[in-house]
Amino acid sequence: MISIEGLSKFYNTSLSRITAVDNLTLDIEEGDIFGVIGYSGAGKSTFVRLLNRLEEPSSGKVVIDDETITSLNANQLRVTRQEIGMIFQHFNLLWSRTVKDNIAFPLEIAGVAKREREERVQELIELVGLAGREQAYPSQLSGGQKQRVGIARALANKPKVLLCDEATSALDPETTNAILDLLVDINERLGLTVILITHEMHVIRKICKQVAVMEEGKIVEQGDVLDVFLRPKQQVTKKFVEQVMGTNDEDDGVEDLISTYESGKIMKLHFVGETANQALISQIAKSYHIDINILQGKITQMQQGAYGTLFVQMDGDPDEIDRAITFITDETSVEVEVVRDVE
Ligand SMILES: Nc1ncnc2c1ncn2[C@@H]1O[C@H](COP(=O)(O)OP(=O)(O)OP(=O)(O)O)[C@@H](O)[C@H]1O
Ligand SMILES: [Mg+2]
């Protein structure tokens, strides 16, 4: 468990004092994938660098697994840092070293013997999917492959925590997804805690369980990703949710569409974390012998399930339709709102 208490960072410039991180208090559960989202300048990088003291806090306390990071001396910090891996947007690889030697670097620093080092490097290469590229130089790798090297290097000393600062921001969407999948795989296999900084809500949506929204050095909103998506409170959070869900115009044009149906029931299904959404519609159509037409909707898949709305028309025996609705209401987490009942 990571516990952060009253953490602040001020920068004094000749003109003013900048508060990059403003009195943050936060707990992060062990084994979590914890997202921190915010716009440029919100203080995300500063925050994450305070956790391993790449930046010295102006005030406050950081405790990781009962070890108070903020009170360690330089020697103790050097040792403890091996338990905190970090990856960066621009990878920060050593350009004159091969893939293998980049990954071996933190092991050399930690004084690991050659033989053990080589075994460990090979393990890591397999883990991140770089087998065959051991002898390549960073300049010969794609962005995704470079980040895989970054991840392997960060994991070399078997850290308990992995800090990711915009680790996918330099990558295209497909490569981003592959790297996010790798992070989930590592989180599950190694059980390490991941703290992920981003300005992209779809990154949070895809892999995080918990999210904190940062603005002007503060956490302005925090919670379960699904809750934050469903009930964003702050303006900044609403804007982030719109990145994924679009603006709140889901009902646009659906009225016209509804008026073209002359029978059956039209309803709006609210998905709030339903895990079986793919199967739901076809299952209902089959089990209740009714026709279901999907009119319009937007569903997004999150780490905990599906979230969004779907307008459907159900046609057939009215009693069967009622039974189908009862099923959805009672047996799933989907909420049903009948919009129009055409008899
Ligand atoms: N070394 C520094 N000296 C002075 N000000 C700094 C320093 N580092 C960061 N800042 C300021 O602190 C604030 C937070 O910066 P930070 O880099 O943490 O934001 P960020 O959320 O990571 O932004 P981005 O999304 O652009 O990476 C900014 O106003 C920035 O200008
Ligand atoms: Mg940053």
Describe the structure.
This protein has 343 residues and is an alpha/beta fold. It has two domains: 2-245, Rossmann fold (3-Layer(aba) Sandwich), CATH 3.40.50; 254-342, 2-Layer Sandwich (Alpha-Beta Plaits), CATH 3.30.70.260. Helices cover 37% and strands 31% of the residues. It contains twelve helices and 14 strands. The strands form three sheets. A six-stranded mixed beta sheet has the order 6-7-8-3-9-10, sandwiched between helices. Helix 3 packs across helix 4, helix 4 packs across helix 5 and helix 5 (143-155) packs parallel to helix 6 (173-190). The mean pLDDT is 92. The chain binds adenosine-5'-triphosphate (ATP) and magnesium ion (MG). Magnesium ion is lined by residues 44-45, 166.
Task: Give helix and strand order, one letter per element, not per position.
Answer: EEEHEEHEHHHEHEHEEHHHEHEEHE
Label the structural class. alpha/beta
The main sheet comes to:
6 strands, mixed
Distance between the termini: 58 Å
What is the mean predicted local confidence, pLDDT? 92
Number of helices: 12
SS strand fraction: 25-35%
- Quaternary structure classification: single chain
Low-pLDDT regions: none
Strand order of the largest sheet: 6-7-8-3-9-10
**CA-based gyration radius:** 24 Å
CATH architecture of the largest domain: 3-Layer(aba) Sandwich
Helix share bin: 25-40%
Q: How many domains?
A: 2
Shape estimate: elongated
User: How many beta-strand elements?
Assistant: 14
CATH class bucket of the largest domain = Alpha Beta
Hetero compounds: adenosine-5'-triphosphate, magnesium ion
Could you name the CATH topology of the largest domain? Rossmann fold
CATH superfamily of the largest domain: P-loop containing nucleotide triphosphate hydrolases
